[in-house]
Amino acid sequence: MTLDPALRARLHRLLADYGAKVRILIDGHGLGQYGIDPADIEQEVRIRLWKALERDRNAAFHTSFIQRVVLTTVIDAIRAANARPSEPIPEGADEAGTAFIEPAAGPERNASGMAEFDRIVACMAELPERRRKAVALHLQGFSLREIGTFSGTSEEAARKLLDRGLQMLRESLAVNGIVGDVDD
Amino acid sequence: MTSSNRHKLNIASLYRRVTRSRATPAALPQAEVLLALAEGEHSEATERLLGEVTHSGMHADLLRFAQALAPESARLGVQLERALEVAPADHARSQRRSARGAMPRRNWMRGVASLAAGLAIAIAVWTLQRTHNDISPQDNTAAVAAASDRIFVALDEGRGTRQPSKPDQIFRTNFRGDEIFKAQFTGG
User: Fold this and answer.
1) Chain B interface disruption, residue of A150, A167, A171, most B CBs within 10 A
2) Which CATH code for domain A107-175?
3) What's the ipTM?
4) Which residues share a beta bridge with A180?
């Protein structure tokens, strides 16, 4: 593709802006905890999109294509990071909420936290599948609308599934001696 | 220690932390399926991935990230389209500009071409005329030969000079009567 210098500069600027936003999103969603460098992803995304523009400028307009380029880049980077020999855990990992072991917790509490998690999972396993999925997605932080979208139901149906699922989970946790808040 | 005495767990927070620390790299999702699930599509693959999302913090983060990418990606798509749409328009405009610039030159060239054509025609006519003049005597001879192409040419040659053909003398209007009965007769 032959581009005049002004257009080339404009396209580079657009991709640079987008790359910066991707970097912010990577940081914001805590993807750095999986061993990837947001700056590397930003650079790689820009390169891949530029190559796509050179190859077929029309394809590069589609939202899904741009998203796919970014997601593929991120997933490839996570795979590469996990293939590398293990590195020391960076400082601040706890701040990002990635480490299971809470900094303020003692060994006894940490051990019990892990044990509690296993018991929570065991309680969830007793739920009917659709309710279990709704509860798990809720615990992962997804909204009712998102739960509905992913499950192929309406938001209202998702709310009913979640309410019933959480009610069952609370009862099950109480029976198992776990007192906890299932909401943030 | 009874459960009521314990620190009240934030179950959601605990769940998220543990599911992230247990992320298994071998089970990384495919970008296509992740995107399909983010857009609310349903298939076996998306159902499988949704199952992963429920117990893998990494998958959940990637799904959320895929959702968050959509608005910015759509914006970039529009911006790229606009940038590349404007480019051909600029190109066409510059072509029109250069065409306008080339117009006086084109007129000049048209004048030269007309002059050349006129000159060529003049030369052709002159050459034709010259050629015609060169071959005229032969043409005259040919015309005479054609005129004398008669059956009894030998008779003409016998008369010495060839007379042009005349109408029959018998019916001439200036027929003259016998001299004997001329009005000059005196009655004698």
Assistant:
1) A150
2) 1.10.10.10
3) 0.84
4) B9
